[in-house]
Task: structure prediction
Amino acid sequence: MEATGIGNIKGDGDPLDILVLTEKVIPRGDILVDAIPIGGLRLLDKDEADDKIIAVLKGDQLYGHFTDIHQLPEAIINRLTHYFVTYKQLPEAPKTVEVMAVYGQDTAFEVILAGLADYKELVEEA
Result:
């Protein structure tokens, strides 16, 4: 099965999600930070594209040196994929999320640009 609508607005209708890796404690999620995309996960959630961009906090002492998701230890990638596949999963419910691909920085930028284009189109139609 192929996910269509990368960049999310045309996929699942939601804004693009980004997870920022950092060693710092950030007590809330509604803040702006300088982050550098290093890759992403192409998810299929109920047959809709739902990409997750993975970034590192700029200058982070633990993660700041990574420039591509494939440089991360495999255990971190496994944790990220496990989280995104299971965080909405209800007990006894069928699995609805599947990881289609783990992609690097170049593709992450393509997904971000596609999401921006989708958002611009959505705003112009409103």
